[in-house]
């Protein structure tokens, strides 16, 4: 049934689900939907715009896209040879997370985990701007560099991630009077629209697992809506939060929209998993298996075991390879978040990925999925 984006925003608001995942191709109205939802929850008028920006405790929604667009902007006046810096718009949220909670070092650590450990953000004294430097080794440093758009997005996401982590920590304290501040007491929703800009697949999985674990740690009434165009990100976070279904947002020929719910027990909902299966097969064919492929492969085994009624995914492993396969399938997925360098998979480990993928094909479940997907 066709709807307007406002109708779909109202549908999302009525849901009692803790997390709602939305997949949409680019150009399908995903970002516009996030704006409609924000307008529905927190209407903005000319009269109260300043008040809404200033009064942190009155906020009902944290919105990643608006955070990106409104709060950070470059000051790089090349005419006067100014040093490029990323200005931080005065805002109660950033003031709270940076000045009051002292999260600047954590933000740097998160940013470097997604980009490069030698690329360092440097906040000024009052946290009104940040510059970037690159450590080249041998005590050499390239200061005041202009980072790429992708690196800029990753930095802003690192600030936002620190903010929602602090928010969840505060709201997990049940007794309101025991919280360190009342800044999040009115918060109802967190809407995150595509936080994976310009990330490679390793870091994309890292972000998805990080975010999924953070959401699972939330015990408060906060509801999360996450939209993305990236099937890999969708698949990983879907599995990380143990979702029972999700949505596909589509734009119809007449300009209206459709939000189709995909139940977890519907074979058609596994088209994402077919995509992931193809990603792994391509890596095997090209002898380019990386550590993140083990996480994807384990997700496929978990999905298959759950559908077929097995107690655990390891029961699907081939008997003569079970111990070895189980060990590497546990090791790599559980180390995707570590800052420690993990060696590239060995040749036998890469070969095992191909063997385990072929093993999945022996189950009639996947033959049915491929026919119906």
Ordered list of secondary-structure elements with their pairings:
Layout: H1 5-14, E1 19-23, H2 30-41, H3 49-54, E2 61-63, H4 64-71, E3 72-75, E4 85-88, H5 92-100, H6 104-114, E5 119-123, E6 129-137, E7 140-142, H7 149-171, E8 189-193, H8 201-216, E9 223-228, H9 231-240, E10 245-251, E11 257-263, H10 271-285, H11 292-308, H12 322-334, H13 347-360, H14 364-372
Parallel strand pairs: 1-9, 1-10, 2-8, 8-9
Antiparallel strand pairs: 3-4, 4-6, 5-6, 6-7, 10-11
Helix pairs in contact: 1-2, 6-7, 8-9, 9-10, 10-11, 10-13, 11-12, 11-13
Outline the structure in words.
With 373 residues, the protein is an alpha/beta fold. The chain is built from 14 helices and 11 strands. The chain is globular and about 60 Å long. It folds into 2 domains: 5-264, Rossmann fold (3-Layer(aba) Sandwich); 269-372, no CATH class. The protein has helices spanning 5-14, 30-41, 49-54, 64-71, 92-100, 104-114, 149-171, 201-216, 231-240, 271-285, 292-308, 322-334, 347-360, 364-372; strands spanning 19-23, 61-63, 72-75, 85-88, 119-123, 129-137, 140-142, 189-193, 223-228, 245-251, 257-263. Residues 47-54, 265-269 and 336-341 have low confidence and may be disordered. The strands form 2 sheets. Strands 2-8-9-1-10-11 form a 6-stranded mixed β-sheet, sandwiched between helices. Strands 3, 4, 5, 6 and 7 form a 5-stranded antiparallel β-sheet that branches. α8 packs parallel to α9 (231-240). The chain starts with a helix and ends with a helix. Helix content is 46%, strand content 16%. The longest helix is centred in the middle third of the chain and has 23 residues, at 149-171.
